[in-house]
Structures are given as structure tokens and as C-alpha cells.
């Protein structure tokens, strides 16, 4: 907010200097306006960077959760395949008590 005020004041000085023919006041106003605009741009860039950082962090957490979920599914599938293989082996071995 302060930067917007400084930008407006710089613009006013620049305009007043132009109207009065005072090049010093006009230059001073232009410099103040430019400095305020640069600070506004810097603050916006910083905010954008913070937003991107937050978004990246969120995406990392989302990806970690998806990987964890997928690992759980694969672990369950492997466990089920192991149990099925054990059952198949057990079922393929003849039971000595059945042959009597």
C-alpha cells in the first residue's frame, strides 16, 4: 500500500514539475515513481515465488501420497500372489492320508 502511495506522489511531483517547467522536480518525481513501481514489482515477484513454492510443496505431498497408495496396492497384490502360490503348491502335493 505504501508503494502505491509513493508511486502516486512521484507521479504528482513529476506532473507538477512538468506543468511548472521545473525539470528537477519532474526528474525527482519520475525517479520516485519508478522506485515505487520497482518495489511493487519486486513484492509481486516475491509473492509469486512464495505461491509457487507452496504449490510445489503441495504437489510433492500429493505425489508422495500417490506413491504410498500405489506401493500399498502392490504390496497387497504381492501378498495375495504369494498366498495363491503357496496354496497351489500345497494343493499339488499329494496327501498321503487321501491315498489310503
Automatic annotation (TrEMBL):
Domain of life: Eukaryota
Ranges of biased composition (kind: Basic and acidic residues): 51-73
Biased composition (Polar residues): 76-85
Region (Disordered): 23-100
Name of this protein: CsbD-like domain-containing protein
Organism in which the protein naturally occurs: Absidia glauca (Pin mould)
